[in-house]
Amino acid sequence: MGAVLLAIYATTMAPGVTFWDAGEFIAAAHTLGIPHPPGTPLFVALGRVWTVVLGGVLGVARASNLLSAVSTAMAGALAARVLARGAPHRMDVAWGAIAGAL
């Protein structure tokens, strides 16, 4: 589930800085700054580590966008796993999770 979502997100992610909050969060992660409230300190800290590791290869903006894709794919996979525990038809949950994540 997570791999399918990650493949979709990674192939459709922005190659660089986009408008509105994306640029602000990329800059905050790169400089360990504080974006607008509430600040999302965990995402900024993870973004800093992620861009230090992958920023030299992919560039800071693309690495930060990839972090968003990975985080969202993991959240979708976790949601599908939690919902599948109580569902009689797991494939219905899987397709529902993919549809909900998109």
Strand content: under 5%
The major β-sheet equals:
none
Give the number of domains. 1
Helix and strand succession?
HHHHH
**What's the number of helices?**
5
| Shape type | elongated
Q: Kindly state the number of beta strands.
A: 0
Explain how this protein is built:
The chain is mostly helical and 102 residues long. It has one domain (2-29, 39-101). It contains five helices and no strands. Helix 1 runs antiparallel to helix 4 and helix 2 (21-31) crosses helix 3 (41-58). The relative contact order is 0.17.
Which short descriptors sum up this protein?
0% strand, 5 helices, 102 residues, single chain, mainly alpha
Secondary structure: elements and pairs:
Blueprint: H1 2-12, H2 21-31, H3 41-58, H4 60-84, H5 90-101
How would you summarize what this structure contains?
The protein has 102 residues and is mainly alpha-helical. The chain has helices at residues 2-12, 21-31, 41-58, 60-84, 90-101.
